[in-house]
Design goal:
about 375 residues; four-stranded parallel β-sheet; disordered N terminus; 9 helices; alpha/beta; about 15% strand
Length: about 375
């Protein structure tokens, strides 16, 4: 039997001789704290005009930047307890920032925080109050808010971080913008990522635009989020709370966004499974949604480079997403519904040119009542 013909693998540019001006060896940095290592993403090319910025946990930028700014301003002091509610990755980032700067940390955790995450928080020295199972993410967030307010009434020395509302969380993303500018200096750029609390995509793009660079921002929302007006819908399988909101977030600056996509769980799952299958990248559902959407956007505009924001790894989705990989939709067959008004919004995937308009969520709750 003749052996099957096998194409020689593409070894890429790694074996090409380095430019004459390149140093023969560049030593790896030795970091003072693990947060310095974690905050820098891995940049991975997914296509001719798509690059992924893949983080272990992107919110290290938000937490470190916020804690440093608060310490410099004297709003918090070493030894003080910082408290906030979180569905997961911000909690870990805040616990690590507190570990680094000699602060105490108390987390009011969502019902979605798993045992692995909780164990990490507790070993890092954080105390954790976790909400009981809930029938809805909105109820879960509202319970967390009430509990934080109860804690503050008992312990006025606690500092409430208010990750959803305090603009201090934008501070750390200027460093990420510098990294992007250095790695991708000349390309016309579109950033594609989950809206979430607003600080990550908003902070990055605000800093890039502040340097004079024209950058498009494509935001992603799940159905059921109040942030960009899809609260009348529900997605029973949705476990992607980190990319949307069931209560208004003041840190979302709607005018920064050029285009909005809304996707359901099944489409985000298709993107996440496809990213692992096609590129061997194990990342979370928000990254999966961004991968799906960036692939569609990049095909429409091949002259622009599309930067996909990969906020965290896929570990907390292992059972509910990746173990079900056989159910994943074929990403290449999926297309969004184009709309021009929120009244036309429909699952499972819609896209609208937002064009930097302001937006007020319906039924907005005063900022001091939410977290």
């Amino acid at each position: 039997m003749r052996p099957r013909d096998v194409m020689a693998p593409d070894l890429g540019p790694a074996l090409a001789p380095p430019p004459a001006s390149a140093p023969a060896f560049r030593p790896a940095p030795v970091h003072a704290h693990i947060t310095d290592a974690m905050k820098a993403p891995d940049l991975v090319r997914l296509g001719d005009n798509i690059v992924l910025a893949r983080f272990e946990t992107m919110k290290v930028y938000a937490a470190l930047g916020a804690v440093r700014a608060l310490l410099r301003a004297g709003r918090v002091v070493p030894g003080q307890t910082l408290v906030d509610s979180s569905s997961g990755i911000y909690a870990l980032a805040l616990a690590m920032a507190c570990h680094r700067y000699g602060l105490r940390c108390h987390i009011v955790a969502s019902t979605t925080v798993d045992a692995v995450m909780r164990a990490q928080l507790e070993v890092l020295g954080a105390t954790v109050d976790q909400m009981p199972p809930s029938s809805s993410l909105r109820l879960d967030q509202e319970r967390r808010v009430r509990h934080v307010r109860h804690l503050l009434a008992e312990r006025p020395d606690f500092h409430w971080m208010r990750q959803y509302h305090d603009p201090v969380h934008y501070a750390g993303y200027g460093e990420f913008a510098d990294l992007v500018a250095g790695a991708l200096p000349d390309a016309e750029l579109t950033v594609v990522g989950a809206v979430g609390t607003g600080a990550s995509t908003g902070g990055l793009v605000q800093a890039l635009r502040g340097s004079g660079r024209p950058v498009r921002l494509v935001g992603i929302q799940p159905f059921g989020s109040v942030t960009f007006g899809s609260e009348r819908f529900s997605d029973p399988e949705a476990i992607i709370a980190g990319i949307g909101s069931s209560i208004p977030f003041e840190n979302v600056r709607h005018e920064l966004y050029d285009t909005l996509h809304w996707v359901d769980f099944r489409h985000a799952m298709a993107g996440a499974v496809g990213l692992l299958r096609d590129h061997a990248v194990f990342a979370g559902l928000s990254t999966g949604a961004a991968h799906l959407i960036a692939s569609w956007e990049a095909a429409l505009d091949p002259g622009r480079l599309h930067l996909v924001i990969g906020a965290d790894t896929g570990h907390r989705y292992a059972e509910r997403v990746f173990a079900r990989h056989a159910e994943a939709l074929d990403r290449s067959s999926l297309r969004p519904r184009r709309i021009t008004d929120l009244a036309e919004l429909r699952p499972p995937w819609s896209v609208m040119e937002w064009a930097g308009r302001a937006h007020q969520e319906s039924g907005a709750t005063p900022a001091e009542e939410v977290s």
